[in-house]
């Protein structure tokens, strides 16, 4: 069974006065991983994630060591059929951004900036408020902390699991409107017309 490192997208906000605006936004791309197959252990400086997809026959495993401390009790989670999204509360209130997500400065292939959610440090006050209504708290979750972080038995539907998230089906519907096969049909019709025109010339001759 293949074990792979999932793609991780991240963005952040910072605030010295409002804890709600002082967070890391993390998206772990793990399609088709049901809640029963998820394990997440969130500590102040580390995150360990394991998820298994029966349909894709893949096991996803991820270990992160953060640049600075977060507050697991104030962090939130949303699980959808495509990914696990986390809003990690930075422990220290500070107007400055973290220079990077991870403690080590080396570049890792699976970690990318989430440009859809990223806002430059000097422009974040003008940025629209994020909607985290789909997210549920992590503090009351059984197994959070040192106990392995087992998500078994948690009803993700109460956390708005996947609520309103776009699916790949929308894109395929749009592409159906402009099917390349239609162009081929036109060419075939054009070919049928050509012999008819040739026959007319023969008749004239």
Architecture overview:
The chain is an alpha+beta fold and 205 residues long. It has 2 domains: 2-165, Immunoglobulin-like (Sandwich); 170-204. 17% of the residues lie in helices and 30% in strands. It has 2 helices and 10 strands; from the N terminus they run ββββββββββαα. It has helices at 168-176, 180-204; strands at residues 2-4, 7-13, 23-29, 38-42, 46-53, 58-65, 70-79, 83-90, 111-113, 136-137. The strands form 2 sheets. The chain has a 6-stranded mixed beta sheet with strand order 9-2-3-8-7-10, with no helix packed on it.
Unreliable residue runs: 139-176
**Would you report the number of β strands?**
10
Number of domain units: 2
Strand order of the largest sheet: 9-2-3-8-7-10
Through-space gap between termini: 74 Å
* SSE order, one letter for each helix or strand: EEEEEEEEEEHH
Instruction: Write down the overall geometry.
Output: globular
Question: What is the average per-residue confidence, as pLDDT, rounded to a whole number?
Answer: 76
Features of the shown structure:
single chain; 205 residues; alpha+beta; Immunoglobulin-like; 2 domains; 6-stranded mixed sheet; 4-stranded mixed sheet; 10 strands; globular
